[in-house]
Amino acid sequence: MIPTIGITMGDAAGIGPEVIIKALEEPTIYEICRPVVIGDAKILKRAATILNSKVEICTIDDPEEARFEHGIVDCIDLDLLPEDIAFGKVSAKSGDAAFQFIEKAITLAKENKIQAICTAPLNKEALVKGGHDFPGHTEILATLTETSDYSMMLSSPKLKVIHLTTHVGLKQAIDMINPERTYTVIELADTALKRAGYEEPRIAVCGINPHAGENGLFGEGEEEEKLVPAIQKAQAQGINVSGPHPADTVFFRAVRGDFDIVVACYHDQGHVPIKVLGLEEGVNITVGLNYGIIRTSVDHGTAFDIAGKNIADNRSMVAALQSAAELAPK
């Protein structure tokens, strides 16, 4: 069964509509999934005009009405935005619309009308101005699916990373880490990779301090308190996990092939190596959502500075759709 994937349009003032159109111009996408955009048809038409694209935007009310043919972009049109919404400007209307696109996608996923969700980027400032006080997609999805144990995974052709914490300050992130959270994320990583076909995923856990604390020389014993008990518990459960490893070498080792995924302790610890390896091919995956919902996303932002200029790169969106098709229940 080829999965139906709902693509949320993201913030209309950014590059989301452009990278969606560019990605759906690729005939190979229709060989692996049945894509349907959840957004605003007139904004997609504007993007197609800017790109000189020949695709036809087809407005539908339900995925069952979609044609899923290359050259046709099926769009569940929520009709929330003015046609002339400004590029590159923070807008409460765009923020609210981006939230409602996600909300609609969750509803469709719960009804099993789509088998996965692939999200174009939103703008956090616009989201808050639009009345939705969330730090990002991951937290929205967790709230709308009543999920408490979840994590952000980043995937690229050479490296996979999953996070203990994400959109909080560094001091708060360290305070939030505890053995229970660490064990949960290790288990989520193991489950996600096994679902993707890894028989025995090799998981490495990053240290919090430089050199993973250097046996107590750096920090205040955070590794021994917050990480080691969880690693030992997971090992006792048969999970192939090791660490804590120094963050300045573990990503190199993972790229070399020593590990299948790295558990990062905080946002930048995990994001920086993925983005250095190639921003265009990175995919953001939310792991552990209730209802069996799979969500992937581009690993870049709204790029307000280049929106509407026909220079946005679609490779991350293509990769996100490929990952959604791979991970969606068949």
Please tag this protein with its features.
12 helices; alpha/beta; 330 residues; single chain; 12-stranded mixed beta sheet
Number of strands: 12
Structural class: alpha/beta
Q: What amount of the residues lies in strands?
A: 15-25%
| Average of per-residue pLDDT values | 94
Shape: globular
Q: Please give the count of helices.
A: 12
Helicity level, as a percent range? 25-40%
Distance N terminus to C terminus? 6 Å
Largest sheet: 12 strands, mixed
Low-confidence segments: none
CA radius of gyration is 20 Å
Q: Give helix and strand order, one letter per element, not per position.
A: EHHEHEEHEHHEEHHEHEHEHEEH
The strand line-up of the biggest sheet is 3-4-2-1-5-12-11-6-7-10-8-9
Model description:
It is globular, with a radius of gyration of 20 Å. The model has no long low-confidence stretch (mean pLDDT 94). The chain has a twelve-stranded mixed sheet with strand order 3-4-2-1-5-12-11-6-7-10-8-9, with helices on both faces. The chain has twelve helices and twelve strands. The chain is of the alpha/beta class and 330 residues long. Strand 6 and strand 7 form a beta hairpin. Helix content is 39%, strand content 17%.
